[in-house]
Amino acid sequence: MLSFRCASFFAGSRWLTVVQSQDESSNSSALEGPSGPSVLSLSASDDLEDLCDGTVTSSSPARSPLLSSTCYLSPSKGLLREGRPSFGSFNDLPDIASITRSQSLENILEMLSKAEKAVSDDILPVLSVEGTGGTYFVSASADYNTRIGVFKPSDEEVSLEGNPRGNNDIMKTCIPVGESWKREIAAYRLDHGHFAGVPETIQLRMPKHYFHSKTDKIGSFQRFVPSDAESWDVMPACLPTEYIQRIAILDIRMCNSDRHGGNVLVCRGAEGDVTKLVPIDHGCCFPTDLTELEFEWLLWKQSKSPFSTACKHYIASLNGSRDAAILENELGIDHTAATLVRAATLFLQTAALTYQLTAYDIGTAMRRPSIGEPSPFELAIADSREALSDGGELDFILLASKLRDLCETISDEKRHR
Asked: Cys staple from 140: which of 48, 146, 217, 412, with CB 3.0 to 4.6 Å?
């Protein structure tokens, strides 16, 4: 039986597709470029890290291997890829999160290969007990003890007819109906260098027979991460400050409207101590307004600690304009949401790097103090918009000035406490 795996990434000046196929007479992989297979090849035992690192020239920025084109799973034809893949920048930073580019690629290949087998073996997906929309665990074995990933179909979100829970209540007015699955992918896409540790998330099309539906289902597919608890089941004092700060940076940039204790996974070491936090469930990020931002970590004292050196390096490396373009041009996120990401990134950089403010300071300024009262960050944005007759766009030069004033105010208040 032929097994088939592929993924694509940018290396040097070329797009490369790693295609790994195995049968009884073959145990090799080929690299395919836009015009067909390149001269490079590797055996199944070769290290993909050498491949990824070796083909990136010193004059070219390294890229994170992120498969954002649609993948199709077919029991008869294996894994098929459609469209031009697109990838995000990767900056080599000190103390960066442990998942490397090559590990990310391997994780994607592995979960797709296992998902393909699950579809072929008719190991049907299982609807999660929790959640508001269609959230399915895809497993590698018939006993469902080995989970591969989490699939969220685009047509089963809240208020859509296909919602398996009959949930017709719009949970977040700031998130366009039917677009949460895109935001799951976008969160991984913008977690450059896996700094916050968002599990690999790609767009995937599942065959209709797998869901007993009339048409194929397209949605987000995220690598399943085994964990020991959720953060709201653990004493906050036990949670590592570094991981909290990295998740806070991600949430601030994405204007997360749903960060709670149930979507931060806790992983423990052999001695029972917390070794890692994993952020998941990002369907309510990248909102079209800032009325419903929610940051659980504001309740944790670690968010009041100064940012670590690694976090400051990472914040300095961010490019809000580039991220906004990624959201709009590559992922189809609306302009309003992308603009807010750019504004939030500017606030983060100004506050953390120029004024030495903490995640707590920044998050408090972004989140509404009460439902009907705009936050200081909202007011700064409102004061920086052009007149509707001129397009209503944000004047980022003016916004930069307003944000500096806001940071000065926060700093003064801290000094007088």
From this structure: 146
